[in-house]
Specification:
Blueprint (H helix, E strand, L loop, with lengths): L1 H22 L14 H27 L3 H6 L2 H4 L1 H36 L10 E7 L8 H16 L4 E7 L14 E2 L13 E6 L3 H5 L3 E4 L21 H7 L3 E5 H7 L9 E3 L11 E8 L14 E6 L7 E8 L3 H15 L5 E6 H8 L1 H35 L1 H9 L4 H30 L15 H26 L4 H5 L3
Parallel strand pairs: 4-9, 6-8
Antiparallel strand pairs: 1-10, 1-11, 2-10, 3-7, 5-8, 6-9, 7-8
Helix pairs in contact: 1-2, 5-12, 5-14, 5-15, 6-10, 12-14, 12-15, 14-15
Length: about 500
Amino acid sequence: MAAAGGALGLLLAHWGVPLILAMGRDAIPRATEVGLDTNVLVFTVVIAALTGIIFGLAPVWQSSRLDVQGILKETARSTASGRAFLRQWLVVAEIALSLVLLVGTGLLLRSFHRLQQVNAGFSTERVLSFRLDLSPQKYDGEDRQIAFFQSLQEKLKALPGAQEVGFASQVPLRSNGWQPQFAIEGQPTLPPSERPSMDLTVASPGYFRTMGIPLLRGRYFTEQDNREHLRGRDLSNLSDGERWTAGLNVIIVDEEFARRYWPNENPIGKQVRLPWGLSPDRQPLMTVVGVVARVKLTRLNEPGGFVQAYLSALQAAGTARTVLIKTTLEPEKLAAAAFQQVFAMNPEQPVYDVQTLDDLRHKSLAPETLNLGLLGCFAAVALLLAAIGLYGVISNAITQRTQEIGIRIALGAQSRDVFKLIVGQGMKLALIGVLSGLAAALALTRLMKGLLFAVKTTDPFTYILIALLLTVVAFLACWVPARRATKVDPVIALKYE
């Protein structure tokens, strides 16, 4: 039996590993290198063999301690009572374990559902994104870099089906992590070690409408938020970095930024300074022109993070940008036409990281999806084993009590009385298992706290629902053998043994 079970397990592993990899391809590092490992296979074969030996020796050892004279005086039913007791408690343990796993799965499922309902602060519907890295040698100045993306934006906006086009240094749910320090003009100056940091994104004027990020106050960036204010100014004495920062004079902040640093004040017109290790006279001083909704930059369940702000892409040049197109068509249908526009401007320009924002949101949930899928599989297997075990124990008990059942029927017991007797025996075991499992779940699910979002580890709805589910499954496992017991023929039963 152990060999047959081990062989079936290896077959399931052969089929299951590709399914797990498909389910967790975005959550498992180096997923393409994952496969059935020889060392793990040898280990599991040894475990299967030891399982067969240990559980095969247990009844042998128990039988070796039997009193032969006692056996001759007792019925087979009484000699098997000790082993029946052990089987019953194994079933109780199975039920308790399956309840713990089912509660864990239920908590993850509720957490996953609530995570899917989270407002990310932007719209993912029908938005195509792809990444461009311009050659620094070919586009060696701020003006050339800005001009390329501006020209590309106009060409993409003219495509059939394109509604809005924007570009940015990074997109939400996969932040590249640019967190410079800043200072609030007019507020006490803090030493460098105590200065706050912000999540800073370089965004084009069309970025916010393309992403569907709501404007709460002020305005979005416009085409006038560019570097024209530098014309006629001598920048020859500035370094490359100083020349880049000299073009910055406007900034958009998120609602948390405004709430934290200008509570009960209008943030429009306030100024933010970026020290960046520059002398005070060369530090960019930017005026707040708009306040937008907060977005989830790293993941949907991020607890807080830095305040967020945006620089105008027409002022802050760069070679690496993510291009975003909001369409009335399926985004994939616009991809080829969009790439043609890129290649028309530069045939050697590579395009990569092509995906829709819907895909991006889905990938951000990949770890939670994998955890839920794996624990759900374990819970389903445990539930199946518990049901089979309970069915086996009750069936065996009926076999051992066939004569007793026949006598009860012969003495006038009704079918419903026999049914209640058998089901009651099984449900007693199930109730002990459920209560034990609830106690274990309350203790063990605390370890899952870091995996849950907006759900307590003691969520009463999950515990009650899982307990009811397991009770129903236990009843069904008892129902089949109990029905069979009601059909016992008293004449045959009285001849039993």
